[in-house]
Design a protein that fits this description.
Blueprint: H1 13-34, H2 42-69, H3 75-94, H4 101-134
Helix pairs in contact: 1-2, 1-4, 2-3, 3-4
The structure holds fe (ii) ion (FE2) (2 copies).
């Protein structure tokens, strides 16, 4: 989970940097979630999840501002995808904690990891050529 691959690069230095940061924070959660020791890491996991949520919002806003600045035509659709993940995390955070928390967190972390990788490969990748063209003009 949360493993950076070169194929994720959109050739925009700042965005690649932010994507790597998302993977780094996500990786910290994945590590904790997979720990099989006798301690309860729930609070720690929720704290890093909040960090991931904040950084995700920061990154999404950064992309949206850039798309807006250069008049990218697929901004609206892209924004809807961003909103989906943000809401998903926020909904999880607002849920009541019960005895199934361990399983639910693993499921969520796996979901976020797959979602981010998929979003970069399918949706962010669509602006790769566009940004590389307009930013060099
Ligand atoms: Fe992105
Ligand atoms: Fe995006």
């Amino acid at each position: 989970m949360f493993e950076w691959k070169d194929e994720y690069s959109v050739d925009v230095t700042e965005i690649d940097k932010q994507h790597k940061e998302l993977f780094r924070i996500g990786g910290k959660i994945a590590e904790l979630v997979m720990l099989k020791d006798e301690y309860d890491h729930f609070d720690e996991i929720m704290a890093i999840l909040a960090e991931l949520r904040d950084y995700t919002i920061y990154h999404f806003q950064f992309e949206e501002k850039l798309m807006n600045k250069y008049g990218y035509s697929e901004l609206d659709h892209h924004k809807i995808e961003h909103l989906f993940l943000t809401k998903k995390i926020e909904k999880f955070e607002s849920q009541d904690i019960d005895e199934k928390q361990g399983e639910a967190i693993i499921e969520l972390v796996r979901f976020i990891s797959d979602w981010i990788a998929g979003h970069i490969l399918k949706t962010d990748m669509k602006y790769k050529e566009f940004f590389n063209r307009v930013m060099k003009e």
